[in-house]
Structures are given as C-alpha cells and as structure tokens.
C-alpha cells in the first residue's frame, strides 16, 4: 500500500473542514442577533445545569462562548462552529472555531464550549492574535459529579479555562485542544 503524501493529507483535512463549514449548523445566515441568542441560551443552560460555572463567569475577564460545534470524521475529520466573545456581559467580537484531525475516527457529534479568560493578559493575547490556537495552556474544568462542575484551585489560577458541555452524537471525546479561533463578521 502506498503511503499517503503530505499534500494528500492536507487536501483531505482542508476538504473535510470546508465541508463542515458549509454544513447548516443553524448559525450562518441569520447574523449577529441569531448568534447572540444562541450564546445567551448556552449560558443559561450552563447556569441551570452547572451552577459552578457562575463562579468562573464572575471571576473571568472575558468569555468566548461557542454554542454549537459540529464535529465529524471518517479517517479525516474536522469541526466547525461560531460564537461570541463577551466582556462584562457584552458581545465585543464574533469568532469561528475550526479543527482538523486524522486517525481512527468514525462518526459525528455536536457540543458547546466556553473559554473563560481569567487574566487580562490572556484575553489581550487572544484578541490581538490573527488566529489563536488552543493548546496545552488551556485547563479543563471537568464534570465529575453529576451536575456539579469542578474547578480545582490550580485550574482556577490558569489563564484560560475550558468547559465543554452538551455533547450529543456518536463520536467520543470533545476537546478544544488544537482548535483555531478566528475573528469573523457574522
């Protein structure tokens, strides 16, 4: 069997990402008002189902709320979604999130996530970048006790905390690591 070239791999990843971007995930054409309504609904869901996130929200200097991420894969995979950056409860920018992957994966899922920026420096770095990629510097607050969300002391001191929630589908393991966020105009 002939090994896959780097060009073929990148072409497959790009095609998968474009296909996901073209999927109607309910956000695209309705503009900013529709996106803000979805962000409000996602934050309300967190408040009701994970009351521990209220403390994160109050302590954060900004939040990137991605109310719907669609992820699919069959060998090549990717995810795409749109959301809003809120500072002091007000939307200041809109962002897209895209991720590409390759490996043993089959299925699709949808989920939501929020990035809590806990320091002014982390928020400023995110806003100044032309495309910010989530990496190892993002800490996760995990849902380990039913409806209670835990953020340990070390997590609470991290510059960026991620909360992934609302997973539905047949592809296991949602993560924001390796996701690239880019500013958009809805």
From TrEMBL:
Pfam families the record matches: Ysc84 (PF04366)
Record keywords, A-Z: Signal
Domain of life: Bacteria
CDD domains in the cross-refs: SYLF
Location of the Ysc84 actin-binding domain: 99-181
UniProt keyword Signal present: yes
Signal peptide: 1-21
Entry annotated with the keyword Ribonucleoprotein: no
Protein name: Ysc84 actin-binding domain-containing protein
């Amino acid at each position: 069997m002939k090994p896959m070239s780097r060009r073929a791999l990148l072409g497959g990843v790009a095609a998968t990402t474009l296909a996901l971007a073209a999927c109607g995930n309910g956000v695209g054409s309705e503009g900013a008002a529709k996106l803000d309504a979805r962000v409000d609904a996602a934050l309300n869901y967190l408040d009701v189902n994970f009351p521990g996130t209220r403390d994160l929200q109050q302590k954060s200097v900004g939040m990137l709320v991605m109310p719907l991420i669609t992820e699919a894969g069959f060998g090549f995979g990717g995810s795409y979604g749109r959301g809003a950056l809120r500072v002091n409860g007000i939307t200041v920018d809109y962002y897209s999130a895209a991720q590409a992957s390759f490996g043993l994966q089959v299925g699709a899922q949808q989920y939501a996530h929020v990035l809590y920026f806990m320091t002014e420096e982390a928020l400023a770095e995110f806003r100044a970048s032309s495309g910010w990629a989530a990496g190892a510097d993002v800490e996760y607050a995990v849902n380990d006790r039913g409806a209670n969300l835990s953020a340990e002391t070390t997590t609470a001191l991290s510059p960026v905390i991620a909360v992934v929630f609302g997973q539905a589908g047949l592809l296991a393991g949602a993560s924001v690591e390796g996701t690239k966020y880019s500013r958009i105009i809805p």
